[in-house]
Hints:
This protein is 28% helix and 22% strand. The chain is of the alpha/beta class. The protein has 2 domains: 4-10 and 94-306, Rossmann fold (3-Layer(aba) Sandwich); 34-92, Sun protein, domain 3 (Alpha-Beta Plaits). Strands 5, 6, 7, 8, 9, 10, 11, 12 and 13 form a 9-stranded mixed beta sheet that branches. A 4-stranded antiparallel beta sheet has the order 2-3-1-4, with helices on one face. The chain is globular.
Amino acid sequence: MLSDSFLPYIQRWREIYGFEKTESIIQNLNMKDKRFIIPNILKISSNQLFSSIEKRGFILRETKMFNAFLIEKAPYNIVSTPEYLSGFFSIHALTSIIPPFSLELQKDDLVIDMAAAPGIKTSLLAQKLRNRGIIIAIEKSKARIPALRANISRLGIKNTIILFLDSMNLSFKDIMADHILLDAPCSGTGLKLEKNKRSSPRKMKDILRNTIIQKSLLEVGWNHLKPGGTLVYSTCSLEPEEGEIQIHNFLNRHINEVEVLPISFEIGIAGNQINWKFPLDSQLSKTKRIFPDIGFDGFFVALLRKVVS
């Protein structure tokens, strides 16, 4: 169940999203999350993976999104299969797939992943590039580098450079990217409780601290994005300050410099539909606010293109 530290958040969710939606949020945050696998197209086709995994006693169901398979029955932990160890697939919540799949990549593009560990989103970028181009995977936590390196190796990714670096310090590097993925650090209030690793009590001031970090990372990323390039921004937070309001303020700081591109997936609601205390930029209609559901965490995602002057 949600701890008492969630009570201030629940009250504000009722004001922003309404009572009925908040009850749904609470119910789904408490539910056990479904597991989905995505074939690694660098090594195997969807049909081959489906057949191989089902022969081991697993029951999979195809979904309409992202070429993903829902694990409906697992006789044992799927990470123990030879297919997993061979890098034939990765495991996801569906929301984690949206940011990398929102970017339209060309084979020779340079892409920066500003907060890369454990590397699952990075791996999807590599697959979209068919192991071409260059991905710079940035991670500031030394403790998380081994997991990032292990996933990249297991999945057969060859176009990725790992930088042990705080993305705040990217300004000191002479790098300009065609595309940037910023899955920003956030309060994580949209994560299902079973995988929410937070140990300290939640405080409302966490939101303010996170927004300052997110604002800085957005500006750094934007400064390293080529004209005409795209930046996808996402957070696993239900707090508008870390999503809709963050992007609203970014658009106000960069008037006539940003085009918000539509998120093509039919899920969630438009970001400008939330009940906020002031009108939001009309371009927020192209962003997505996603609520916790089967296979999904609470999430916000925006796709920004740098306008060529």
